[in-house]
Design brief:
Distance between the termini: 66 Å
Shape: globular
Radius of gyration: 24 Å
Number of strands: 11
Keywords: Decarboxylase, Lyase, Membrane, Pyridoxal phosphate, Transmembrane, Transmembrane helix
Family: Belongs to the group II decarboxylase family.
Cofactor: pyridoxal 5'-phosphate
Helix content: 40-55%
Strand content: 5-15%
Bound molecules: pyridoxal-5'-phosphate
Oligomer: single chain
GO molecular function: carboxy-lyase activity; pyridoxal phosphate binding
Number of helices: 14
Protein name: Tyrosine decarboxylase
Strand order of the largest sheet: 1-7-6-5-4-2-3
Structural class: alpha/beta
């Protein structure tokens, strides 16, 4: 590593990235390439001799960028956002610069200690109960994704109960969640050895706006107990992936407590909004949770990846995930005076991810972060008003955060209640390259999801997106009638 060469090349890279952001609106938001496109454009094997950075930049422009879907485009309204910011970017850069592997405290004390502190800061912004702070038995940790967060929570919960009832009873353990829960929980159950038939996806419907109904949970639990099964894990979602449904945390917490179950709260997307006092009520009841997860890389200006997880009892994680091989032994770990994050996660190695979250919190400050969230919610409200004002459309579930779920109303006698019509509308909009949205299906209806959450999105982008949607809808309706 030659420091002067790094300086020269890194300056060029920063210029390249800055120009990318300046011109980001000129690219089709959703990549329009076909599968396998890159195979024909790149050589079969790696070069024998070094090539110039300029040659690589040329290839990035001509061959890579066409295959990029521009998540940071202001016209990106799909899935959930994956935020970047100057602060997050600089933190990533610094982390790449240090390039440490902070699996245990001794492997880079600042990495562990900054993570502990920053997760406490964020827990306080979210007003999480004291038990989630590092001062007691709990604490926070940065995972790569919400999928890893729910997996480690599930493993900790599983092993906690198996220590009491014996490992051979694993076939009796039952997990509960709503049918709107992210598929990450299903994957976690598969990995954790929970029997497929013991993974209860409880039905939701429009009567509760797709939130879990506590009575349904209680009934499922008592039915299972009556046949000798052992309920042990309940997952509540605050802001489901399809429609931002909010499960009733307080009621679910009571049920989990009464049945001695682990309650995990998945607030991967909507958790960020809970730093605003007016949205904090969505996580009222978190006092009874055992673990809480929010993806700072979704809607909190922190570049991917940064999924924050808090647990009340860190020893449950450690008992489930710790290993102590000779080659990692050291005085600090042996005397139990430090956190070794390798015991709170699946992999051993871990990046210095707290740097970027620290930089986000410091370079913005909580007031700006709150305004950031509020602005997106305001833009989503404006979009919702546009939809409501056009009688050809309907908003399908009430909007809570920055996601609007809507659809084009089908003409009378439409064969499939607008399923194909809306599917075609989505295809027409996305293939225009002007914006990118995604979809879901709720109660058999094909629904368009419009999420405001890209840091560069302004009112004009939302209005323009709506114009494109209206034009494409008009053309499709004309075709249907014609
Ligand atoms: N939970 C919810 C509510 C989500 O919306 C998502 C992704 O959008 C996930 C979990 C999975 O996220 P990750 O990609 O971080 O595993």
């Amino acid at each position: 590593m030659d420091a002067e060469q790094l300086r020269e090349h890194a300056h060029k890279m920063v210029d390249f990235i800055a120009d990318y952001y300046k011109t980001i609106e000129t690219f089709p938001v959703l990549s329009q390439v076909q599968p396998g496109y890159l195979q024909d454009l790149l050589p079969d094997s790696a070069p024998n001799q070094p090539e110039s950075l300029e040659a690589i930049f040329d290839d990035v422009c001509s061959k890579i960028i066409p295959g990029v879907t521009h998540w940071q485009s202001p016209n990106y309204f799909a899935y959930y956002p994956s935020n970047s910011s100057i602060a997050g970017f600089l933190g990533e850069m610094l982390s790449a610069g240090f390039n440490i592997v902070g699996f245990s405290w001794i492997s880079s004390p600042a990495a562990t200690e900054l993570e502990v502190i920053v997760l406490d800061w964020l827990a306080k912004l979210l007003k999480l109960p004291e038990q989630f702070l590092s001062s007691g038995q709990g604490g926070g940790v940065i995972q790569g994704t919400a999928s890893e967060a729910v997996l480690v929570a599930l493993l900790a919960a599983r092993d906690r109960v198996l220590r009491t009832i014996g490992k051979s009873s694993i076939g009796k353990l039952v997990v509960y969640a709503s049918d709107q829960t992210h598929a990450a929980l299903q994957k976690a159950c598969q990995i954790a050895g929970i029997h497929t038939e013991n993974y209860r996806l409880l039905k939701t419907d429009c009567s509760t706006n797709f939130a879990l109904c506590p009575d349904v949970v209680s009934k499922a639990i008592s039915d299972d107990i009556s046949v000798g099964l052992i309920p042990f894990f309940l997952c509540a979602t605050i802001g489901t992936t399809s429609s931002t449904a909010v499960d009733p945390l307080s009621a679910l917490g009571k049920i989990a407590k009464e049945n001695d179950m682990w309650l995990h709260v998945d607030a991967a997307y909507a958790g960020s909004a809970c730093i605003c006092p007016e949205y904090r009520h969505y996580i009222d009841g978190v006092e009874d949770a055992d673990s809480f997860n929010m993806n700072a890389h979704k809607w909190f200006l922190t570049n991917f990846d940064c999924s924050t997880l808090w647990v009340k009892d860190q020893s449950a994680l450690v008992q489930s995930l710790s290993t102590n091989p000779e080659y990692l032994k050291n005085k600090a770990s042996q005397t139990n005076t430090v956190v070794d994050y390798k015991d709170w996660q699946i992999p051993l190695g871990r990046r210095f991810r707290s740097l970027k979250l620290w930089m986000v919190l410091r370079l913005y400050g909580s007031e700006n972060l709150q305004s950031y969230i509020r602005n997106h919610i305001k833009l989503a409200e404006q979009f919702e008003e546009l939809v409501v004002a056009d009688r050809r459309f309907e908003v399908v579930v009430p909007r809570k955060f920055s996601l609007v779920c809507f659809r084009l109303l089908p003409p009378p006698n439409d064969q499939d209640n607008g399923y194909k019509l809306n599917c075609d509308l989505l295809e027409a909009v996305n293939s225009s390259g002007k914006l990118f949205m995604s979809h879901t299906v709720l109660s058999g209806k094909f629904i368009l999801r419009f999420v405001v959450g890209a840091p560069l999105t302004e009112e004009r982008h939302v209005k323009e997106a709506w114009n494109v949607l209206q034009d494409k809808a008009a053309a499709l309706l004309e075709d249907e009638v014609g």
